[in-house]
Amino acid sequence: MSPRILFSTTRRVLTQLRHDKRTLALVVLVPVVLLTLVYYLFEKQPGVFNEIGLIMLGLFPFAIMFLITSIAMLRERTSGTLERLLTTPLNKPDLLFGYGLSFGLVAAVQAGVATGLAYWAFNLSTAGTTGLVIVFAVADAILGVALGLFFSAFARTEFQAVQFMPLVVFPQIFLCGLFAPRDQMAGWMQALSKVMPLTYAVQGLQEVGAHVDPTPLMWRDLIIVVGCIVLALSFAAATLRRRTD
Amino acid sequence: MDVAIEVRDLVVVRGHKEVLHGIGTSVATGGVTGLLGPSGSGKTTLMRAIVGVQKVRSGSVTVLGQPAGSAALRSRIGYLTQAPSVYADMTVRENVRYFASLYKGVTRADADRAIADVGLSDAANQMVGSLSGGQFSRASLACALVGRPDVLILDEPTVGLDPVLREELWRKFRELAASGVTLLVSSHVMDEAGRCDRLILIREGRIIADDTVDAVRRAADTHDLDEAFLRLIRAQEPVEVAS
Ligand SMILES: Nc1ncnc2c1ncn2[C@@H]1O[C@H](COP(=O)(O)OP(=O)(O)OP(=O)(O)O)[C@@H](O)[C@H]1O
Ligand SMILES: [Mg+2]
């Protein structure tokens, strides 16, 4: 890996985003709109937004970044730029971490805006600090990026790529504890939820919500999420083949 | 005479079909070699093998003394894909500067020079997605030239360009060759074949001629390269039936 190439690749991805103002606006505004909906949905039920709204702060960046990254990587593949890049001194990690960094930066802005809105407009209250909520939101976003980079390898077309979103993201959302507490699920579902990284991201956020100080469980959850990011990026690197048919 | 590209018994299978059937050739350092052949004959496949992105069944490809695709080679080789491969959602300058940044010691000034070399200075700040077809492919060419490679693999660099631009690009290619760069250029246009030092004629995955331009003309007994090409291809046909 070369810092120079990593930096310029990060910059290039950000430049592409900068030219696509509508996508940038959507990235920031979609969570705001959805969060507003969720707030008014539970307006009459005190305390619910504190739980659901908090989890949403981790889910939006995950789902949105997964989708955007898998399409971006697919484009890189279908436009021939990936093949060309692989004939240059660029190494695979330069590209993958470049995507991780640039989209991570965008995710930080997204998470900052959404979290700010939740706290100040919708009176979200958490026992732990806002900073930790943002840390988890950004980690979730980068998890989405890493999984998106990996799964895009299995899509040949945009039609296929968008369908990985329901396939990869929805089950994780169903089983992460948002809809039903995990300990009330059937055994095999609990087992499934245990191998899904989003489960730990959500659990970490719940820990921040419930405890003033960071708990050991929260740290463990964060480490697991970061571990999954590294794992997904390594798998993504393995699926990036320099030589193809 | 130094050898820049050495291909030995190269067999490539794409899909379920053998596309290159054990071909071999060697390209000397410096100079322009034309790679010609009918559509589907395997030109792009051979070029992909030389830049090291093509899976090969057997045989070997060596570039500048190293196995094709090896890390040390990648800073010394430039590849223009047949379909332009640049980012449509960035300007020409942003594209070329990005590719420049991948090579050590290649500056933004080099990027601007590459843009000028392909005649795109006036469109440097235009989004690639809004370029005309010919401008689009020249933007792609600029990205291949910018790394100041020792070996340039150009897959149909002048397709769809007007005679004036073709003339300018060929002057550039000749200039690069004179400075010691090895160019392998595929083309369908026979008047371009005449500008090469050597020609490799490929048909259905086999090399049917591999010689200097004059020697190819002599072998086919005609000065007209178009005609020479047709004659050489026809000369192969009975062999095909017999085998
Ligand atoms: N991805 C692929 N999968 C399977 N077969 C392929 C693939 N790409 C090319 N081929 C086949 O390999 C053969 C050689 O293709 P290649 O692209 O090398 O031809 P070419 O000489 O460059 O043709 P053209 O002048 O039209 O560009 C063709 O028969 C083509 O159909
Ligand atoms: Mg071709």
Describe this protein's structure.
The complex is a heterodimer of chains A (245) and B (243). Chain A is mainly alpha-helical and 245 residues long. Chain A has 10 helices and no strands. Chain A has one domain. In chain A, helix 2 packs across helix 5, helix 5 runs antiparallel to helix 10 and helix 9 runs antiparallel to helix 10. In chain B, strand 7, helix 5 and strand 8 form a beta-alpha-beta unit. In chain B, helix 2 runs parallel beside helix 4. The radius of gyration of chain B is 18 Å and the shape is globular. At the A-B interface, helix 1 and helix 4 of A face helix 2 of B. Bound molecules: adenosine-5'-triphosphate and magnesium ion (MG).
- The share of residues in helices of chain B is 25-40%
Give average pLDDT of chain A, whole number. 92
Q: How are the strands of the largest sheet of chain B arranged? A: 6-7-8-3-9-10
Counted beta strands of chain B: 10
Query: Pairing-aware structural class of the strands and helices of chain B?
Result: alpha/beta
